[in-house]
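Hi R.,

Here are the chain sequences for the assembly we discussed:
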Amino acid sequence: MRTAKTVDRLRQAVRAARQEGKTIGLVPTMGFLHAGHMSLVDRARRETDLVVVSIFVNPAQFGPSEDFEAYPRDEERDLAMLEEAGVDLVFMPSAEEMYPEGFATYVLQEGSLTETLCGRSRPGHFRGVTTIVAKLFNLVGPDRAYFGQKDAQQVAVIRRMVKDLNFDVRIVACPIVREDDGLALSSRNTYLDSRQRQDATVLSRALFEARAAIEAGQRRAAAIRELVRNRIAAVADARIDYVEVVDADDLTPLEKLQGRIMIAVAVRIGKPRLIDNIQMTVDR
Ligand code: AMP
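And here is the predicted structure of the full complex:
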């Protein structure tokens, strides 16, 4: 496994692979890797010849009062996990490498996809995401890029960007990896103390209960939102940011449940803001 800390080194390595006719898979991450990240790596390993993983805690996607400084980092452990998984190339640039003095060009996606859900509570977040992902796509030129459904809005925003800016890359969305008790894996789970860790299972419990209600015939989005809100509100230390029932593709709010739908939640428990979602297809 090779590591590249600079744009030049990355470009060299990628160019060599391309000349050999290899297909390239890219897995962008912020590091502090867990089984969720590794599921993307494994999928990339199966589907492409050269697997590139980026580890970069992207300052541009954190708000001024968010956890950029505190965000967990463990370079040594991350590299050992990636080596073990058979990754070919790890790109781990410094902030100065990606945003050198005088950096001024951002990718800004307008419209409802970036304004709803997390976009509403994290202004500027998706501008940071689209900018860094566009840079990575330009640098690596991947045939396929792998993202987790855990960040379903991010997937929708990136698909839109790829379409609008004509990036020649296939976006592959991978299922959410969960702990045995349902909690979606996240680097931010490390912020939870044991009591909060227990409380945090309420996100997936509420979502699974909502799914069961829909399977039992509930078709009113308001009733599902209410059910999920009530379950989460029953946990004293949980502060709801949003509970939304939306179209899974364009993220517009629904009244009646039909077609591909998503129930998405963001909840603060102690320090971290946790997100989770489920997607399902609902018939009439
Ligand atoms: P992050 O390091 O949090 O920016 O995540 C990097 C990538 O891993 C993103 O595409 C995430 O959606 C994905 N990811 C994070 N957690 C999970 C999970 N529990 N299951 C599947 N994918 C995940």
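The radius of gyration is 19 Å. The pocket of adenosine monophosphate is lined by residues 29-30, 36-37, 39-40, 147-148, 150-151, 174, 176-177, 184-187 (CB under 6 Å).

Let me know if anything looks off.

Best,
T.
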